[in-house]
Amino acid sequence: MEWCVTMPKIELHAHLNGSIRDSTLLELARELGEKGAIVFSDVEHVILKHDRALSEVFKLFDLIHVITTDHETVTRITKEVIEDFADDNVVYLELRTTPKRNDSKGMSKRSYMQAVLEGIRSVNSVEVDFSHKANADTSAHSHFVDHLCNGTRSKKIYVRLLLSIDRRETAEAAMETVELALEMRDRGVVGIDLSGNPVVGEWPTFLPALEFAKKQGLPVTLHCGEVPNPDEIHAMLDFLPSRIGHACCFEDEEWKLLKNLKIPVEICMTSNIRTETIASADVHHFADLYRSNHPLILCTDDSGIFSTSLSSEYALASSTFGLGKREMFDLAQKAIDFIFACDGVKRELKMIFATALKKLN
Ligand code: 5GP
């Protein structure tokens, strides 16, 4: 479905270290193998294996973090991931990552994020907008959009960042991440995510940091209902997050609550199917939410780990549920309402979609 590739798309649920190219991961692992830091032959098949249960995915992340957590590599993978999304005609990307401390590399959460910013700045195959001051001269942006829509200028991608709290972290580490996010609001950080192995950690540990973020006006999205845990799902919905991700293990009562609250859901079909949290595409809750007109956004989750792309996710939903080009375009466009960036960016995205619509027909 070529049109799934060519139409503009919005990605709101992509983990940096889950979106690395296989080729880059293998190259980095081979280099570490040559230095004697890991045994390459032990990790090669782990990287190349495609069907993994959810628990195996988190084991793979531990390996990826060993391979990628130094400043230079973080910069490289950030650059490549943005280039790959831009290549797939993603026009707005909210990229999430867990700021990491790695004393052996002299890395703090702040310096990790500086390496991410360096990666964003080093993208040169596409124009990147990664901070948008409320009072900035919007005429320059509109001028750009004009050019973009007329096809007289190279591609542009808006990139914003969400800082993730890993469920293995302490309350203090979670608060440190929120404080860092607040400090970086003028450098493209637009929100907070709670992620990590869903069977690890307790909701009350993260609540103070998440409440603080909310109080400071920083939107929060939560990985919610990846495993059956009704008490946690209820507590998360009571928190009134700005969005949630996954929602795979909801029961009738939780669906009712979610729909009443109209909390947008980031849907990651391939990820849910590969990790067997959902049996197959045709029984995915996308269908029910779509038919109920509930706010939802198609996303990739971990395009590297699950060998997918946002256009593949659109193609999968389209072919599974019999949705046509125009319906998928409308779905992509509606995602504008759920981004965490400011109204100025929303206006510009609306112009990009309006122009693309003329070409669609
Ligand atoms: P990073 O934050 O290191 O850039 O991206 C990888 C991290 O994102 C993982 O270690 C994990 O904490 C989180 N993550 C990636 N995919 C998933 C997922 O499907 N579910 C959950 N709960 N967390 C994920």
From TrEMBL:
One of its GO terms (molecular function) is N6-methyl-AMP deaminase activity. It holds the Pfam family A_deaminase. SUPFAM superfamilies: Metallo-dependent hydrolases. It catalyses: N(6)-methyl-AMP + H2O + H(+) = IMP + methylamine. Residues 8-349 form the Adenosine deaminase domain. Its EC number is 3.5.4.4. Gene3D superfamilies: Metal-dependent hydrolases (3.20.20.140). Belongs to the metallo-dependent hydrolases superfamily. Adenosine and AMP deaminases family. This is Adenine deaminase/adenosine deaminase. It comes from Handroanthus impetiginosus.
